[in-house]
Each structure stands twice: as C-alpha cells, then as structure tokens.
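tool=predict chain=A
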Amino acid sequence: MMDIGILVLAGSSKEDWVEKYGVQTKLELPVENETPLIVHTWNGVKETNLPCVIATDSWLAEKYHLEPHVDATSNIAETLTNAAQELDTEFLLVLSADMPFVTAESIKQLIREAQEGGERDIYVLIVPKESIEQAFPGAPRTYVKLKEGYFKLANGVLIRKDFFMREVKRADDLLGNRKSPLKVATILGLGTIFKAVTGTLDVPYIWKMIESRFHVKAYPVFTSRPEFGFDIDKEEHYLKTLELIEKEAN
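tool=predict ok
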C-alpha cells in the first residue's frame, strides 16, 4: 500500500461571472445539496481518511472551517512547497478543488489504479474523452489528440514527495499548464511539439520524454473515473454541473 497524503489546491481566483450567484469565487458556488464547491471537494478528501492539507485563502479557510490548511500565496510554487511540508508521507496526490463530482470513493479508485503501475516517481493522471462524454454529455472540454485517441489530463498528479520538493518549479509549470497541450509539449521539448502539431504524438513517447527530462520513473494512469476530467472554469461548466445534479436527483 502506497504511503499517500492529499494536497488540495484551492486558491481563490476572481471570476466576474460568479457574482450573479452571490459568491466571491467559484469555489463558493453551491453544488450537490447546496454545498459550496470547496467544501464538497474537501469533504470527499477527508472521507478517504488519508493525511491531507488544503492550500487556500485564509478567509475561505476561516469561513468554511477548512483544516488543516496553509495560506495560499500569489506564488504557486511557494504555496505547493508550504503545503507539501505539512504532509509526512512518501507520495503526494495533488488535486484541484474545483471538481464538483469527486468523492472519497473516486479518489480511492484513482489510487488503486495508480498502484497497478508499480513503484514509480510520478503518475500522470489521464482521462479518456469517451468516459467524460459518457458521464457528462455535452460538457465543454479541451482534449489532447494522441495516436491512441483523445484524452484530457486530469486535474491532479500523484508524485513522490522528495522528487516533488526538488522539482517543485517544474511540477508547478506542468500543473499550471495542464490545460494547454502546446505548453506542456514545450516543457517536454521540441520533438514533442513537432509530434503534437503533426498528430503523431503517442503515450510511449510522452513517457520517454518525461523520464528523460526529469530523470524519473513515470507511469500513465488511464483512470476509469471521469470525475477527474471535469472541473468548473467557466459559467457553462457550472450550468452543466447544475443540470447533471438535477438530472441525478430526478
């Protein structure tokens, strides 16, 4: 059994469209059972009974009683480092707080799928397009085209803590650019850019590049849990969330 702690990234951002819902940030938007999004995510994490910490703004932590927490700063690398130091575990599962359908069970299933890869340094979480469209029909998403099909990088990563602490800046770059396939390709080198542009990029090549660039053992986790490929960035995502919640309730 892997020794894993969960680090939730929940720094607030300013989105003008959320004001019509009477909140200051998207993380306060009510989702299932009218629970604020940040609380929903944090409850799911805590229900795993794994060590955990949330990196968020102090006012959000105080308002919603989110503990243990570290204060989020404008420097994401600094925030990640401060939060990681609070977890005395071999691995870190870094998740964003804006996924409205993630539960304790889906997190546990994700970890089980990662463990099938054996002893690695970094487990990159990937969600197939088909599973997202089946679970969340009509949801607007951006996918990466590979030779094997269309995929979305999940909103998180499972990583060995000592490697993470050494490479926190580059880990920050990969996390921050996960929604931009071209920027991720840039981090991994010119060969990756060429293959991405020409449509010849495939999973084995990506892993070869990750391992050679970072000098680590990497593993692609094609998760069966589409929840990790659905987050709320725009109002259309939130409206789709409410639609799916209502449909499930009926």
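The longest strand covers residues 149-160. The two ends are 39 Å apart (CA to CA).
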